Amino acid sequence: MKLRRWAGVEGSYPLVMGILNVTPDSFSDGGVHTDAVAAAFAMVAEGADIIDVGGESTRPGAEPVPVDVEISRVMSVLPALVKSGVVVSVDTRNAETMQVVLEAGARIINDVSALQHDPGAAGVVARAGCAVVLMHMRGDPLTMRGLALYDDVVTEVAAELRARAAWAVAEGIDPGCIALDPGIGFAKTAAGNIELLQRLDVLQALGFPLMVGVSRKGFIGGMSGEMVAAARVSGSIAAGLWAISQGASVLRVHDVRQTVQAVRVWRGLAQLS
Question: Which domains are present in the chain?
């Protein structure tokens, strides 16, 4: 299986992106990092290829965060990581935040709204020439639960992601900078999440690298019977290995050490360099 390289990010594919939420209310790890910079460096030491810093929770039902608060949270950790050569992604929907963090050295913008939330976002990304993740979501964190209505979730998600990617290219974003994310858990039912993972080949056929974030998600609890999000490590790894076996190029995870070990074994068995 050939996994797609993405935007010049070095490393052995699939890449592992470590999640660093500098928020008090993210669904699994909000408020747990008393020293977020140290937590990021620990994930790098464990083998993370990218650190994804988020200053606004986008869990279902989350209220928007003022942009100045989001920027303050992200910038409390970003300079130290950039100075040390860490590849940093910033999880944000806001053009102002994007501009600030890209000027500070972030290399990737990870937008759960696929650049739909802020009219200025596409222009910021295009001018910077940075890598960008376009994630599928309907509505926003406050409304998405009521929008998980599909006749065929895979076909519709694929069509909507195709349209967003085409729009981004028309806005001046280099196609080689784009990765797509099916948005597991975002405006999806548990059954919809499972069906998307079972048919990732349909999304891979869109021609862009895929990033998949299954870490600690609710559908894993439903399948395994584990209701505590932080205890879903084994289930998260199982789902992540399934995703890369279906062509995912990047896994976005909370549990870096365990995931890196599993990916290295998978890569060796798959005879990937």
Answer: 15-270 (3.20.20.20)
